[in-house]
Amino acid sequence: GAVVSQHPSRVICKSGTSVKIECRSLDFQATTMFWYRQFPKQSLMLMATSNEGSKATYEQGVEKDKFLINHASLTLSTLTVTSAHPEDSSFYICSAPPSPASGGDEQFFGPGTRLTVL
Amino acid sequence: AQSVSQHNHHVILSEAASLELGCNYSYGGTVNLFWYVQYPGQHLQLLLKYFSGDPLVKGIKGFEAEFIKSKFSFNLRKPSVQWSDTAEYFCAVTIKAAGNKLTFGGGTRVLVKP
């Protein structure tokens, strides 16, 4: 199956700093990528839809100025957590469906990034 | 907005026992249905999916699921579990009219005792 990578896998930062998380589709193109957040022992909550060449679409309750998303190319989306606080500590997961031209109807998930804000 | 509910939060069973995990969704239109598994320390993997056709879907590792449209259900089953099936299982739905946005159920943590 298709492969989605995330970098870094773990990051620890101080409160008030910004952290950038990368999501890459390694062997297919993705015009859309999704960012999820997973709290311990809970399900995945969709944060936003990253769209190549246009603005991201955020779910209700997600601060777009805090969680900046940039879909720089057909294989890369980045999530920047700005001015991070301890309550932003979580597991962030991205997913990507291959673009329709690639025959995609299924999403492939990255391994996740564990963010700890001290 | 659509929602997905999984009936059991935790399931504990012994090896060779049968497993059934319930999943119901709330949306009256056309949906795609998925079951994902997350093994300890690993990323989400697709077990099986239903888009159309035969409502009984067979997936990897001996899992199957049955789509019952009248009940808005997509229950996951495995006749005989193994210790290696210990994982968290997520049911998820996409609405065709809304693109590929997945809505996940709350997850069911399954522990298989050797």
How would you describe this protein?
The complex is a heterodimer of chains A (118) and B (114). Chain A contains no helices and 11 strands. Chain A is mainly beta. In chain A, the strands form 2 sheets. In chain A, strands 2, 4, 5, 6, 9, 10 and 11 form a 7-stranded mixed β-sheet that branches. A 4-stranded antiparallel β-sheet of chain A has the order 1-3-8-7, with no helix packed on it. In chain A, strand 7 and strand 8 form a beta hairpin. Chain A is globular. Chain B contains no helices and 12 strands. The mean pLDDT of chain B is 92. Chain B is an all-beta fold and 114 residues long. At the A-B interface, strand 5 of A face strand 5, strand 6 and strand 11 of B.
The coarse overall form of chain A would be: globular
User: Largest beta sheet of chain B, briefly?
Assistant: 6 strands, mixed
Oligomer: heterodimer
Query: What fraction of residues of chain B sit in β-strands?
Result: over 45%
Radius of gyration of chain B: 14 Å
Question: Order of helices and strands of chain A, N to C?
Answer: EEEEEEEEEEE
Total of helices of chain A? 0
Total number of helices of chain B? 0
Strand elements of chain A, count: 11
Approximate helicity band of chain B: under 10%
Can you tell me the overall shape of chain B? globular
Number of strands of chain B: 12
The H/E string of chain B reads EEEEEEEEEEEE
Strand content of chain A: over 45%
Distance between the termini of chain B: 41 Å
The most extensive interface, with participating residues per chain, is:
A-B, 20 and 21 residues
Mean pLDDT of chain B: 92
Mean pLDDT of chain A: 90
Q: Secondary-structure blueprint of this entry?
A:
The complex is a heterodimer of chains A (118) and B (114).
Chain A: E1 4-7, E2 10-13, E3 19-25, E4 32-38, E5 44-51, E6 57-58, E7 67-73, E8 76-81, E9 90-96, E10 108-109, E11 113-117
Parallel strand pairs in A: 2-11
Antiparallel strand pairs in A: 1-3, 3-8, 4-5, 4-9, 5-6, 7-8, 9-10, 9-11
Chain B: E1 3-6, E2 10-14, E3 19-21, E4 23-26, E5 31-38, E6 45-50, E7 56-58, E8 64-68, E9 73-78, E10 87-95, E11 103-104, E12 108-113
Parallel strand pairs in B: 2-12
Antiparallel strand pairs in B: 1-4, 3-9, 5-6, 5-10, 7-8, 8-9, 10-11, 10-12
